[in-house]
Amino acid sequence: MLFQREGGLQVQVRETIAALNRLGQDDAHPLQAELVDPNRQRLDQFDLIHVFSAINGNYRVVEAATDMGVPVVLSPLLSPGWDRASGFRARVADRLAGRLTAWHVQTSYAQTKKALQLARLVIALGEAERDAITSGFLIEPAKIRVFPNGISRQFFTARPELFRHRTGIRGPFVLMAGTVSPYKNQLGLVQALEGLDLPIVLIGRCGRDDQGYLEAVLRSPQVRWLGELQHEDPLLASAFGAASVVALPSHGEVFPLAVLEALACGTPVVMTDENALDLRESDFALRKIAWHDGEAQRAAIRHFIDQPPQREAVRALVEQYTWQRVASQIANCYFDLAARLAAERGMAPQVPQALVALDIKEHAAVRQEEAQRGSA
């Protein structure tokens, strides 16, 4: 179901595979990556399996690969909201559910924890996610590496003219890009900015179950919804480049690509404080505020509109976040893992010939949040 939706996870998988294969053409990193089709291919056709997202049943992929003797690298994409207290409550709930059902029911927390335990290496997107993995799921820090997401080049070179021409919006406006849903909190943003003569542009898919929510958001005359745009659509990058502020007041994020892409366009961001993104000395362009604090969101947005930061300085915050750099770090992990496994088996290190980036489940931006709320 992965590519039945479009969002940050899909971009991460596609860009990681493409960057790994570009890197694989170099003699220093001889490798090949592809998206596995579990209906047609066995996991033991590959030297290593990289699983993206630890929820929605992906623990079964980790189990199957482990049973076949194929090492697994896991990018779990866990909410930074997990801590010792929430992890303890989830473990209590899992034991209670098991006892009440003669161990026929297992919580999503237990499944996620099993995937983390079986993986030979875990890649977190930031220090906040690393802390969530160690504190909430009791995974040893030694098996965790921290590499951020990358940013596609079109966002560094985006021009606002296309968006201005297509929409007719000439003055300042606030942009929010992401799935339209109560969790993403578009309505909260609209309410926070009520009374300001400031257009709000929404870009993103709306599921059938959230059509009523979208209708409530669109009752505000200041809102304009452009629907879903493909990540490669020049209009998307142009919208980020034209916006005065990008807002993301959702209940929680892991490492949101929309924020990185906005900053790459030189656009300041006001976002939820429940996230794993950590950019040093970024307060001049990035404000983190509680999702339910509309007054603080309003003040931060007005500040950025009245005193916009220099776009080149904003871009500089994320100029090192390229997919090629991320792929190089990930590839080094693959080779290090292969060498370690060979040493454990008393064999000479073998260069992996086929590495696969894999995820067979739905977009995590909404589904992960629902599963984690239910498990807690």
From TrEMBL:
Domain Glycosyl transferase family, residue spans: 171-276
Source taxonomy: Bacteria, Pseudomonadati, Pseudomonadota, Betaproteobacteria, Burkholderiales
Species: Pseudoduganella buxea
InterPro entries associated with the record: Glyco_trans_1
Gene3D superfamilies linked: Glycogen Phosphorylase B (3.40.50.2000)
Swiss-Prot/TrEMBL keywords: Transferase
UniProt KW Transferase keyword: yes
Protein name stated in the entry: Glycosyl transferase family 1 domain-containing protein
Pfam (any one): Glycos_transf_1
SUPFAM superfamilies: UDP-Glycosyltransferase/glycogen phosphorylase (SSF53756)
